[in-house]
Amino acid sequence: MIWQAFGLVEKTLEYQNWGWNALTVSFWLSLAVTAVSGWGLIQQNRTLRKSRAAEAVAVPWMAYHGILYAAILVYGLTISSLALILNGLLAVFYVPIMAGLRKFKGFTGLDNVLIAGLVVAILAMILLPYKSIFFFAFAIGGLVSATLQPLEMVRKKSAEGLSIRLIGAILFGNAVWFVYGLSVADWVLIAVNAIAFVIFGMTAGLWLRYRRSVENLT
Q: In angstroms, rounded to a whole number, what is the distance separating the alpha carbons of residues 195 and 73?
């Protein structure tokens, strides 16, 4: 098992191009991103458990991004990117978050349909040969789902249940993956992370706005 894992590492872009170059530097940064993102997801789960409320958290966004990380894992295996493989393993961290959302907010009928559809889609990506097309579709869908989070905050006029640490971790990740995309000349990673940075920047701004509103009332 250990030798099989090492054999997988030997085939990756990072191993084949190891040295003082943009790919190696961005790989080490991607490890930091994965660690920070994992920490942010843990903080989000703690925020849900502590507040026992999730009024401002968009269920479709969380559900979609959990599956998106699974798509990143599949795509990383396809293009032999160790950075993407390790980052894709973060999909596991979404399991307790989704359980918390189900408990403290509940899923609508549309939420259940979306989750079922996403599970079918990731299974199709695994089984079918069109990995790049699936990943591009997931990436675009991820941008659409990301817009639901600031919209949910505006609709509820609240930041309750959302961890700013998670948003900060996502922004850091967007910046690093943008650089990684430049180093491997992957236009999907470049474009998606540039747009996502703008969306989550808006989300952070709304969190600060509504958080201050609550503090001023108390």
A: 21
| Other Cβ atoms within 10 Å of 30 Cβ, number | 22
The pTM of the full predicted model, rounded to 2 decimals, is: 0.77
- What digits encode the pLDDT tens for the residues 192-210? 889 999 999 999 999 998 8
- Return the SS3 of 101: helix
Which two tokens mark 177?
């993956």
CA angle 22, 42, 109 (to 5 degrees): 105
As a whole number of Å, the CA-based R_g of the chain is: 18
Q: Read out DSSP for 140-196? A: HHHHHHHHHHHHHHHHHT--TT--HHHHHHHHHHHHHHHHHHHHHT-HHHHHHHHHH
How many Cβ atoms from other residues are within 10 Å of residue 40's Cβ? 23
CA distance 152 to 203: 10
Q: For 144-168, what is each residue's pLDDT tens digit?
A: 888 888 888 888 888 888 888 889 9
Structure tokens at 136: 């591009």
Structure tokens at 34: 């994965």
Q: Cα-Cα-Cα-Cα dihedral of 150, 152, 156, 160, to 10°?
A: -70
Tokens of 19: 């040295």
**What per-residue string of b and e applies to 112-138 under the rule 16 or more CB within 10 Å gives b?**
eebbeebeebbeebeeeeebeebbbeb
What does the chain come to in residues?
218
